[in-house]
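Reviewer 2 asked us to include a model.

Predict the structure of this chain.
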Amino acid sequence: MRKLILLLFLIFMSANLSFAAKIPADIQNYINSTFPKTEFRFDGVIILPDATVYLPLFPAKPLEVDNIAIKSAIPADKTLKDKPEAIIFNNNYVLLKVINNPNGKKTIISPVNVPEEIRNGLLPQDMLVPRGLIIPENLKGIIGNLNITLDENPGLRVEVPQIKHANVQNTVTPVPELKNKTFYVATGYSKNIQVINSENKTPAYALSQNHVPNAMKGYKNKFLLVTSFGSSSLNVISLADEDVIKEILFTAHPDEILVDNDKNIAYVSSPEDSSIYIVNLETMTLSKQIKINGMCERLTLSADGTKIFYVDKKTNEIWAIELDNNYLLKDIGKFPNVSKIAFDNNKLYITSRTKNHLAIIDYDTNGLIAEIEITAKPVDMLAFGNNLFILGAEGNVVQIINTKTDELTDAIYLNTNGFATRITPIEGTNLAIISDTRASIYCVLDMVKKQIVKLSPIEVPIRAIVVTDKVTKINK
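Predicted model (structure tokens):
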């Protein structure tokens, strides 16, 4: 029975790959030559830098051509730079521009004489169509089995109660690096992901989910990857659409998420079936299942993306997966009550929540280099620039270990009277957010200056937080 389930799952994974809508590279290069930084989304939607949206039609019989060129356009004699309503390439691919009407509706062009390339084309069948798009009657054939989202459907967006008291201050002055950013916050108890402008302390609105989010990671400021308690799927949320663009199914509950932006992949753990899955983030499909020993938790990805470390929650055994060595499993040893694993300078740093110490292990020999007494209840760690930042919940302190000398060099006291729980690095900066489950506040840590540069109020507890640039919405 188990073999049958695994076979069906592998068949599903293979089918999943075929659903991805890949715009040919020569068309991508052609568009990028006029509009650099165009987004070619994995479901087929093409978004120009100014948020103009084109929908591709895939031909039944693509033509092989030496050089891609525009065969015709509607209106005629328009170039790509003019952003015409329809573009027909010499290989029979077609782009249809999403037109925003004055009444707020969206549609595409409805030519009196429909060119053959448009009439015989088909929209990608896994596309998340812009909400409320109206397909003209004479173009209904391009839909196939595609689901067209109704205009009345608000997507995931739900309103939240707003502060109305005149004497309550809602504004926050963020540090310059966080200006005009958006916080996506999972609270750990609500099904809603709270959406908070960095200049405010209360949510502007929320994104609803069917289950309470467990882990959440961002990808390229465009997507949220979300696992949830009680759910067997990984939701991929498009921030431009504010809707679930892909639901990736697992045979058991997915749990933690690691993202490797350089390789455009994510690692998703599933302790129940002793596996870590690789998700191709360019197609948003499962690409590999890595079978491991035990029930994995406390996942850590090395900075160079070659190793994953985890602890078996049943045995307290720590394992390494050598990703560049045919996924070889290496037994590191058994450590009590592991709260976090970090890796730097070819050394493992392991904290114990109950023993309040840091063990330093040589990766090559598995030998104990040192054991250092640290703050009580160490709950999180972050390696950055030859320094290891250790967050202690009981003392509300960040201790800093130099990973070259393995000496304790600094202690930063948060002075929040709370119970800090997590350090989350902010991509592209030297900053990290220290979140708190007790105090309505978060701390901004400058990891170069080694100091707290800002304490800011926030009206929701933070289980997981993703910080992004503000995303232009395409459903407005």
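The first helix runs from residue 2 to 18. The chain is about 5% helix and 40% strand. We have added this to the supplementary material.
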